[in-house]
Amino acid sequence: MEDLTRIEMVNHLAQSIAALEALQGFAQLVPEVGSNLVYCLPNATQLEEVAGLTGRIILVRGQPKTCGDVDFGWAPFMGLVVLAAHKMEDSIRSAISLRCTSEIITACQMQGLEPVEFRWPREQAPPNCLTLAALETLDYVPKALYDHGAHGLEALLVIFGKNPTTVVERVRLICEGLSEVGSVGE
After folding, report:
1. CATH number (domain holding residue 176)
2. Mutual orientation of helices 130-137 and 76-88 as an angle, nearest 10°?
3. Residue 103 forms part of a structural domain
4. pLDDT tens-digit profile of 61-107?
5. Per the domain annotation, does 172 fall within a domain?
6. Which pLDDT value is given to residue 186?
7. What is the total count of domains within the chain?
């Protein structure tokens, strides 16, 4: 039964990633480090139970391009993020990492995603993952969580949801909001 669930999850995730690649405006949301969409098993507690890309979604000639295949255990950064969120709220099983700018945050707000900001104290050395540190300070999982980065760490926006379809729908809302706000500044 679990093997069937894994196959279904891989297929669902692959379809969702293809939908992201085709989404008008998604290129503006891909961070320099690339993006990854992940999906964990219902009772996941370890990275081997999280499906994601073996690579990332990157920009090639200004267009989103998937590098790698969907598989379990190959998305350590986003895998740990979704596991932490899933541990807090078991209905949360999917997440994506996106670029973070003031225009993107405004688009999130306009679309009702209520992004939660996390600021790491500048006088402290940042952890390897600001998103994990941010989740540790909250008692719930927001739809959208963002940080401003730190020395050597790109500012990121993470969108959470119950499955990849929910996450892609939230990304679509952000793209729509961006079309109203204007293109993303550098």
Report:
1. 3.40.225.10
2. 10
3. yes
4. 999 999 999 999 999 989 988 999 999 999 999 999 999 999 999 99
5. yes
6. 46
7. 1
Residue 10 one-letter amino acid: V
pLDDT at 157: 94
CA distance 143 to 123: 28
Range(s) of the domain holding residue 33: 2-181
State pTM to two decimals. 0.90
What residues have CB less than 8 Å from 1, skipping those under 6 apart? none
- Percent of the chain clearing pLDDT 90 (strictly above): 72
Of the chain, the percentage scoring pLDDT greater than 70 comes to: 87
Question: What is the spatial distance between Cα 33 and Cα 113, in angstroms, rounded to a whole number?
Answer: 23
Report yes or no on 85 lying in a domain. yes
